[in-house]
Kynureninase (Sulfitobacter marinus), 792 residues
Amino acid sequence: MADILKKDAFLLPENVIYLDGNSLGPLPRAVPARVQAMMADEWGEMLIRGWNKADWMGQPSRVGDMVARIIGAPDGSVVMGDTLSIKVFQALSSGLKLRKDRRVILSDNGNFPSDLYMAEGLVKLLEQGYELRTVAPEEVMDAISEDIAVVMLTEVDYRTGRKHDMKTVTELAHAKGAVMVWDLAHSAGALPVDMTASNAEFAVGCTYKYLNGGPGAPGFIYVRPDLADTVEPALAGWLGHRQPFEFDLSYAPGHGVERMRVGTPPVIQLTALEVAMELWADVDMNDLRAASIALQEQFIAEIERDVPALTLASPRDAAIRGSQVSWRFEHGYAAMQAVIDRGVIGDFRAPDIMRFGFTPLYIDSADVSAAVRIIADVMNNNLWDDDAYKVKSRVT
Amino acid sequence: MADILKKDAFLLPENVIYLDGNSLGPLPRAVPARVQAMMADEWGEMLIRGWNKADWMGQPSRVGDMVARIIGAPDGSVVMGDTLSIKVFQALSSGLKLRKDRRVILSDNGNFPSDLYMAEGLVKLLEQGYELRTVAPEEVMDAISEDIAVVMLTEVDYRTGRKHDMKTVTELAHAKGAVMVWDLAHSAGALPVDMTASNAEFAVGCTYKYLNGGPGAPGFIYVRPDLADTVEPALAGWLGHRQPFEFDLSYAPGHGVERMRVGTPPVIQLTALEVAMELWADVDMNDLRAASIALQEQFIAEIERDVPALTLASPRDAAIRGSQVSWRFEHGYAAMQAVIDRGVIGDFRAPDIMRFGFTPLYIDSADVSAAVRIIADVMNNNLWDDDAYKVKSRVT
């Protein structure tokens, strides 16, 4: 297995083992200076001319291509902007327009709530009998019936790490005449994804987790190339217009996935992300996956050996697990706070999930063992205290 | 008139007179170091804990309050996020739900195209006979009939600078039973706005123009406080949920304008904006308006004295003009490029508008005279060349 560790590329705090890169990736070392330069040399010196001279205008597509390479999608099929929630809305609304004879969006209750909320908001907006139907993750396959317009799933469950089989689910969705939308929030940068092979119509994702783009880094959307010139963008912003600087009074969708651009792109935020994405140029996603699984297997074995209070909530089979390991514990919130206070950062997800993410670019086997020692100390010696941690976690 | 010039607070390039702050404001001097510190000390050191410890989570409302003070709105009535185009969609979709018995959005053809496109996209998404009706700016009052659900206007026309009377239009809209949405893109930071007195239901705007938040700075939305707990957010994202960290499966809108939050806020971009907004703490908007009008009147008088080729496109009456002066010239695109090449930065808007913005925080009377001398030199000596400037401007 190739060594893909590049700890030196990140500015990691002292005395911290960061097992929460699946929530917010750490700061790549090169980012601050490059963002500083963008502000001083581009915004400051070029002013409005930066849109052309520094090609801020091309940035959402340029960075989109960098993301495309991580998710097995061709150049020109991904564009950046706004947030993952907005991208979910775009994919769902465009998906429904591709199946106007049907009224049901199918998802599962392991999907990230914001995806379900966005679907709920869309359904309520549309009226006319539109419906969001939600089933348990393991019931999705049976629930893909011929009244489903769009199947929307997050490949890797944000709580348990349980992983859907993208290819199998997509094939069934298509067999039943439904459009497929994948949320890659916990996939992009975490494991190999092959959008082209999946044949799914849409994918969306965020870039502040495994891709290390920083807090509030923009979302992305992929549209299958054969559809990109026909899908109707419900969020018809001027930068998705065919000729934005003609200032026509009527909307004409741009070429391909460019039509999924909406308003003015967040140039400062995109610059941080663009620098962060450069770290992926030499990463083989199969090597990354192998390294991730090795770290997870080590973590499960050592926790099960040393910490009897924790019950595995993630699938035991690595093949159907993303890049995180979750445990159930009744007092998980307080316990996680105590673990964090001792330098091992994971996070808590209601109602009782203690979640740890594995990111082989900056976490190695020694980190895993050191983390287990601290977790064992906290759990086995009851160093957590429900009363001391009344405030709910606000991590994303 | 109080002196409100604070040139030293901005990093302005040498040999440039910047009359395009109505497109992209310049770099406030304090921004780079503060953004750098946010990246190193918060993202880098706190990692995921920054959401609480650095209160990233409260930033969209905290910065919203800073914007609220500029537009005559109370604390807690404005929230930041995404882009102006997304905020337009939120205001329109919520507005339509307040008038379910009507189907027409009324706007004018002086509105910024993206606003019209977003309305067009929404109408097309909704079907059921929804319609966008667009008239000339001077015909708006006559067109507010009793079938109008929502009137959506930009207070200051992006091309001519012509200014609607917010109070009068809103009163008529309400008299006819319509909901009012104001776009303050060319108002916020440009002239006094009194959202409370206007009584309008919604306002939206951007922060990269007069508010100097940087390229791609987020948009804002204002919801009239008496409605904020009842409006339905069509973009129902998790950070607009009442209890986002409960991870409920169903959406429950947050308190007040917080429900207009959607996805994860762009923290780096918001930090630049937050620093930029600090410059407004001691600015009296009436003083700013007086200074802006004085600069504009000087510019009009000197251009009309020295540059016969230019025809005023903006209203001559300062009371109905925003903070810009626009001129018509058949070869405006090439002429503006030639002027820019000589250090006076304005911009061009199709088909024939040469536009100059006046921003009294960093432009003074001497700048105006110096700009006129350069414009006169270019125009009177035919220093522009249609052939030399074939590429369309891409400034926003």
Q: What stands out?
A: Residues 7-29+284-388 of chain A form a domain with the Aspartate Aminotransferase, domain 1 fold (CATH 3.90.1150.10). The radius of gyration of chain A is 21 Å. Residues 285-306 of chain A form the longest helix (22 residues).
